[in-house]
Amino acid sequence: DLETATLFFLQAINMAKTRLWIASPYFVPDEQIMSALQLAALRGVDVRILMPRKPDSELVRLSAFSYFEEGEKAGIKFYHHQRGFMHQKVILIDERYSTIGTANFDNRSFRLNFEITMGISSPAFAKEVEAMLLKDFDESVPVSSQVLTDGSPWFRLKVRVARLLAPIQ
After folding, report:
1. How far apart are CA 52 and CA 71, in angstroms?
2. Strand, coil or helix: 142
């Protein structure tokens, strides 16, 4: 059984040359996707991940923190949207491509759920997505792995346990 969502996102990540901005309420990538994101950042792509400050799942929130340190080492930037629950699932790739759909950046969307995501090749549409995401980034705060360093031992343990559960989230 082909994992079409995984293949779709891998292709989108790998085609990025200058910019890869991702907005998703759930950021719990598998190893393939995380490696592709890291490689994109290491080759000079501006990789940004936008997620809600308060998602509707505490387990997902904790899991997302577990990816920050390895992502930051490669140059990935993480942001928390501050205004309510952000539910958009959008990717902007360079100045031409974008995706919009129902798929999150998590294993359930990659392998289990029935999802639909549309890839759009249009500089004009990409410009509109860019304007929307720039506004969203303006309403967001950068977040880093310092959250883990500053967190209590109990918080760090919860993040580690959440990461172990990531494959079933």
Report:
1. 18
2. strand
How many separate domains does the chain show?
1
State which residues form the domain around 39: 4-168
**Pair of tokens at residue 168:** 């079933």
User: The domain that contains 161 carries what CATH number?
Assistant: 3.30.870.10
Residue type, 29: P
What's the CA gap between 13 and 20, in Å, rounded? 7
> Residue 111 has which token pair?
């392998």
Closest alpha carbon to 50 in 18, 71, 84, 21: 21
The reported pTM is 0.88
pLDDT single digits (tens) 125-156: 999 999 999 999 999 999 987 777 777 888 77
Q: What is the pLDDT of residues 35-69, one digit of tens each?
A: 999 999 999 999 999 999 877 777 778 888 888 99
- Beta-strand runs (E) in the chain: 19-23, 27-28, 46-52, 77-81, 90-93, 97-101, 105-106, 117-121, 140-143
Q: How far apart are CA 159 and CA 107, in angstroms?
A: 17
Distance CA 23, CA 40 (A): 16
Parallel/antiparallel/unpaired status of strands 46-52 and 19-23 = parallel
